[in-house]
Write a structure and sequence with these properties.
With 329 residues, this protein is mainly α. The protein has nine helices and no strands. α7 packs antiparallel against α8.
Length: 329
């Protein structure tokens, strides 16, 4: 039996240096089969960036069911509040109670109209694939071209929505349209993100801020809990509609579910924050010695807290939707 033994390459060692035996003098080259096996063992595949796995269907159905149940409870509670408010207004003089009742019912109808407009406008919006951070660089050229086609559909939608010829976005869209075939897809997508999507995000945040301030001021002046809920719901639907109209991107199922949850939370908090703040003010003003200061704080603090809460949560809802709609975080 021969005393020689095969010498396999160590990590980082070239295959040509592999020998048979203990000395270089009597080195026996590896056979072709051995070289092939060693090469296969040292090869490594190109790493694929990790992607977030979608939530299980069972979990999505459970969350949707809980959210639907919560909405049913909230609607039932608000229906009771509405009935009590209607009974109160019917006891007022006709020239005062009936106009207020008509305005209240009109506000409810306006909120439903806003929600219907969201559902209808979504069908006309193009779908744009959402990428994970850093995923664009690792995509093959074919997929980058598909994303570019989706963004060009968004450009068509934006042109239709922005009919004003003086809109500053039109020259940018014209420039990008002319470069769509001459520039590499990856570079074109980055330019589109910088020149179109980022300005649209800033425009959406400005719109949401104005809606939130108006809703907060209205909630602070509202005398009834049902009106607080209507203001919060209308502000949420208005913010969502403006954000969707500005971006022109169809929301995914996850974005729609998150919007429904934020709307539920915003409307629910509008109905309870006054009671919570009233209890807090009662405990604080009990320690205030000056009667005038205590009375003023007890009267104003709950409504101020309610207005601030409504404004903060409407702005939070709109900004979260903007982040979720952006295809390249």
């Amino acid at each position: 039996m021969s005393g020689t033994r095969r010498h396999w390459p160590m990590p980082g060692e070239a295959l040509t240096s592999a020998t048979s035996g203990g000395s270089a003098a009597g080195a026996v080259p590896l056979t072709d089969a051995e070289v092939k096996n060693a090469s296969a063992a040292t090869e490594r595949e190109t790493p694929v960036p990790l992607r977030k796995s979608p939530s299980p269907p069972v979990l999505r159905r459970a969350v949707g069911g809980l959210l639907g149940f919560g909405f049913c409870l909230l609607i039932f509670y608000l229906s009771l509040e509405l009935i009590q408010t209607i009974n109160l207004l019917l006891e007022w003089p006709i020239y005062l109670g009936w106009p207020i009742l008509a305005a209240l019912l009109g506000a409810i109808g306006y909120g439903i109209y806003r929600l219907a407009r969201i559902l209808i406008s979504i069908r006309e919006m193009p779908v744009v694939r959402r990428l994970e951070p850093g995923e664009l660089d690792s995509l093959p050229a074919k997929e980058k071209k598909e994303i570019r086609l989706q963004l060009m559909e968004q450009m068509t939608y934006l042109r239709k929505q922005r009919a004003d010829p003086e809109d500053p976005l039109h020259p940018v869209l014209d420039q990008l349209a002319s470069q769509a075939t001459s520039h590499p897809a990856g570079d074109w997508i980055r330019d589109y993100d910088r020149l179109v999507l980022s300005p649209l995000g800033r425009e959406g945040r400005d719109k949401v801020r104005k809606i939130a301030l108006t809703a907060g001021a209205s909630a602070a002046l509202s005398p009834w809990r049902i009106l607080d809920a209507i203001i919060a719901f209308n502000a949420a639907t208005q913010a969502a509609h403006e954000v969707l109209k500005i971006h022109g991107i169809r929301p995914s199922q996850a974005v729609a579910l998150a919007f429904a949850f934020d709307t539920f939370l915003n409307t629910f908090l509008a109905t309870v924050v006054e009671d919570v703040s009233s209890d807090l003010v009662d405990s604080l003003t009990a320690q205030v010695s000056a009667e005038t200061g205590a009375t003023a704080a007890k009267a104003l603090a709950p409504k101020i807290a309610e207005g601030l809460t409504t404004a903060v949560f409407v702005r939070r809802l709109g900004n979260r939707m903007i982040r979720r709609l952006h295809p390249f975080p």
